[in-house]
Amino acid sequence: MIKTLNKLFVTMFGLGKIPKIPGTFGSLATVIILYIFFHILNLSSIIILIFIIIVFIYSFSAISAYTKDNENKDPKEVIIDEFIGQSIPIYTRPTGLSFVPPFGPAIPVIETLILAFEILDRLLTIAKQHS
To answer: What does the alpha-carbon distance between residue 98 and residue 110 come to, in Å, rounded to a whole number?
Structure first.
């Protein structure tokens, strides 16, 4: 039972088993989950932070147990690290900082940088899988 729960946890309920770009799907699921937590359920930031910390701490033992009998110590189906990696910039995203160009709407600087780095991360991850 614990082995099954660990497998579900580290693969984000099976998303890691998707054959192509599982980490990307894990990242997308993280964005959706946190959007629901912050904007639909209106959960307190403290509750969300505690949840992220619990996931972070538990991930160490879950990943260790999952990879214990596996020759590959970095299996591609383990994508809980994507959840943690995406949660940090989303949770800590400041608001209100924008660049206003001489034409067009204001561009949120921090959000643009976060998006650019997330796209770069996805591209590097995909390139690593094909090398």
So the answer is: 8
